[in-house]
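User: My collaborator and I are trying to settle a disagreement about how two of our proteins should look. Neither of us wants to argue from intuition anymore, so we agreed to look at predicted structures for both before our next call. Could you fold the first one, then the second, and keep them clearly separated?

Assistant: That sounds like a sensible way to settle it. I'll keep them separate. The first protein:
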Amino acid sequence: MMDFMSIALTLGILILALICFAIEWFPVDFVALTVAILLMVCGLVTPEEGVSGFSNPATITVMAMFILSAGISRTGAIQMIGDWLLKWGGKTTHQQIFVMGSIVGPISAFINNSAVVPIFLPLVEDWCKKRKIPVSKLLMPLSYASILGGTITLIGTSTNLLASSISQQLGYGAFNLFQFTEAGIIKFLMGLIYISFASAWLLPNRNPTNNGGYAQNYQLNDYVSELVISPRSNLIKETLRSSEIQRQFDIDVLEIIRDGVHFSQPLADKVLAAGDILLVRGSKEELLQIRDERGLDILPDLKFQDENITSQLTDNEEGIAEILILSNSRLVGSTLKDLRFRQRYNSTVLAIRRGEEILRDRLGKIPLRFGDLLLVQGPKESLSGFQTTRELLVIEQSSREGLRENKAPIAIAIILGVVLLAALEIFPILVSSLLGVVLMVLTGCLKPGEIYGAIRWDVIFLLAGLIPMGIAMEKSGTTDWLADQIMLVGENFSGFWVLIFFYFVTTLLTEILSNNASVILMIPLAANVAESLGLNPLAIMFTVTFAASNSFMTPIGYQTNTIVYSPGGYRFRDFTRFGAPLTLIQGIITPFLIMWFYGLDG
């Protein structure tokens, strides 16, 4: 007999979690952890079950795969492969996308795709500049190719590993490394053909980082001005720190010019004098206010044509760079003011690109998001320092300095060894991946201190927090109750339409929530329905797994889409226009492939 009180409580927590995921008031990993705590407090899971996600084989394996991906990255192995992209990329956009996808997809089958795309993004942008291709034509295909490639093997994405772990918990056994590779390869090739040819018609021609100067791309003409300190100014003999003008007004002083000499960061303790020219970022309203209150004069606007702004902001020592905030960055959720960004990085943020939106006002008070593109100005030495952190990505082909390229063959051999040991079933993928981590450190491909920075902790806490939700749904009877409701409709349809139903429901959940959350919610439900209808449970579980990994219609459904959102200058609807046909194609061919390779009868 079902305990309807427990079912109602479980559904209530689930719905609350779905709302929090959708409206993004809190980070997804915090929401997932809160869910686990609520489940324990309400007695829906035991304390041991509530923290079991941290010891789950899927969580540990995903953690190990992030570290192995970092080993490949730090040795420059993928960068070397990227050189082939520049050399053999082809002349037409169709050829270029096909070649790029043919390289990125297979790599993503064995290296986590959320690690592959950040490495390839600067390479593709550099390629676009050299070939004079609109960057918007290639970045979305880059993301889609990595997503499709990640479905080829068990280790291509955390979704597959999690699905395998849930299958094992349900008593159907874990998936082997190449269990759905046949279907995955066909899905990948069909998707690659689509993105290679449809991009010409469905993707916009935009070059947010390639056309014109930074001032034009970020519309800085009205936001960067020169102010001169007049003899009547109360700033004379003050410093920027003591005057607190950067706190009082929404401005940033980028440079001080005195008698033709340019003084750059750090400027906080530079004593100001009459006649000093301040190069300032700020709105006209703020500039007028500081003029009236502090006795400064605004130099004529006509000095500031696009090329003049860029030349003013850069010289032999100063530079401008675009910095992408990655999903594991500690900057996510914080403001520039909270972070003391200028002091910490000795650089100033001039503007923020968030998808199609350009943010220039009140920058210090804007909470930063994963995927934000920061236009940063500062000493070139400080800008090069951004390339050493795994939390931020400089959107230009970075120097090979610091990469252990002599270790690249060893790192590749370790990855191949991990795959071989798992494929031959000598060790489970959990054991072989952990062995690979140890070898990465012992052989010098990774330093011990780099391990922790390599792990996507937001993904780990998301998995660990949501796994108890799956347990609670099983224990409370929520999964059985939901399966009964689906059965009322599903029993009137053939197995093929049941697969179609689960594919598109899972896809919709993935676009709204996340791929991992969708798998946790849908796989137990799919297995239950399959058993009730006499269908092959693995067939429906594979369908759900593929659907959860195929997020093409929004920039927020999958992490690689978010990574290319701002650098590509895309609008939200660009993903829907280009991704909806691909979603439909994949949704139709996947059930046929599942039936062909795995059978539908129970």
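The second protein, kept apart from the first:
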Amino acid sequence: MEAVRSGARNEVLAGDEYGEAGEHSSSPLLRYGPALSAILFLGLALRLMHWWAVRTRPFFAELAMDSQEYDRWARVVASGNWLGSEVFFQAPLYPYTLAVIYRIFGHSYDAVYLLQSVLAVCACFALAEAARSLHSDRGGDRAKLHGLLTAALASLYAPFVFYDVQMAKESAAVSITCFLLFLWIDARRRHCFAVVRWLSIGCLLGLLILLRENALLVLPFVLAGAWAGAKRPVAVAIRGISIVFGIVLILTPVALRNGFVGGSFLPTTFQGGTNFYIGNNPEADGTYRPIVPGKQIPRLERTEPTRIAEEDRGRELTASEVSAYWLGRSLDWMVAEPTAFLRLQLRKVMLFWRWYEWPDAVDYAWVRRQSLVLWLLPVGFGSVVLLACVGFFLRWREQMCRWSGPDLPLSLWTVGWTVSTVIFFVFSRYRIPVVPALLPWAAWSLVRLWEVSVDGRSRRLSPWMAGLLVALALLLPRAMEPGPRQDLVQYNLGVLHRDGGRTALAREAFVAAYAVDSQHFLAAMNLGLLAAKDRRWAEAELWLRRALAIEPRSDDVRANLGALLLATGRIEEAEEELRQVLQANPSHPQARRNLDLLGRGNFR
């Protein structure tokens, strides 16, 4: 087998845009259709079993953070308010899609999870076809095996299953990426202009931008991949125009809507500048850190940056002006501290490629302990990275060390998505659209491992040794996986219990979060508020003062402490605390209300 492939390396197949080496001829050895159907059925069955295991659990039956906001927004839209009244701050496609689902199926989380799972399995099929399209002979045994193994890895990839059963846009982002990569790879194989394919690629990228605004930064990489290999200037022009027109076609209605309701014709949202500042400022560490401590809930993530920008500028700002304000602050820091900026980017690159599934609101490691299916799934990010590195090197060698071969879309998407994410800040859910580009390479390493191990003329690698290497790639990252972030898990559980009126359980969860992290000021503040609700004033003050000692910049902690002091008759202390709150945040509603009551003598 190796001799045949090596001998064919200098031959160019007729009709092959890349001049790729000849593949093995097609044979009935692999029954591609039935095998692929079985893999996809397995992928769907695993997602359904995972859904059944977690459907009544916290974060799935009760939503938190962004999931809760998507649900709230979708219910507002589904009630008939399709236009809205403000410029979009968060990407709108996912909530509007939820609204359509709610209108059809009612307010059902299960309907969302099941539809996302079905779409994800269709995306696994598209990714399998993308892997086959990397070969000039798509019907050959080698191409079939590559497609099947790519589909298998996608079906068994645990983080995909994790996000497919969540009220989160990551599942849709991965599915769109899979279809986009298939069209991109397939379009480059064809000699004709394939205008419809390039236009479709632009439309899919536009949809992805409406899920993840950073996808707009991938456009130069997609254009470079479209132009590479084009032999005539007219082909370059048509491909580029088709892609850009597809994006414009998707984004124009959003820009017109934003201009109509808010006066800013932004094609997506106005959080770009804010997010850029969060990821690039003197206190940034590469992950999410709120601009105002304790204000990391979706509603306040919109209002607080606007309030601060307007207070600093001394006037009301438009949405685009708010974004420009935060972008300008970040750029000023970058110019003043270029070395610190570069160090931060390097740190974010390392965070991006770290094997750990860095959590946001829902901890992947914790959910794995709630679902046997998710716990048993063998493929994680570390495994894919290890296998993809090997597969990339092997493909690069077989393409005679050329960068413009059929794998170019995978390379450009990997680099482009890494750049577009790292330039802001990193969560594991932000990086997940890079995984579809890695899976064909990971599968290729398995294809080559299989070929070498079963080649009777080769004694370099036995089947047992090949199996051991695969097992090592799967198990090593698993062995290094840390446990759940109990401070995050317990705090978010406490919020769910608190909002659900389960006070005792909320207090227990907040205590557990504080026990894990004694610097968790939000847990301490909530314990103070729960104690104050039961009129245990001494305990409440103890917790609030602990929270204030941990985070003295928090206006909410100080405002709650001022309210407690008012309730216990310590007027002068209360007035001092409330005035400090208004110095930091002149529009704080609770502090202003209580200080107004003091001014009218209601507490004296």
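Some points you might bring to the call about the second protein. The chain has three domains: 7-15+30-260+358-479, 272-286+293-338, 486-599. Residues 272-286+293-338 form one domain.
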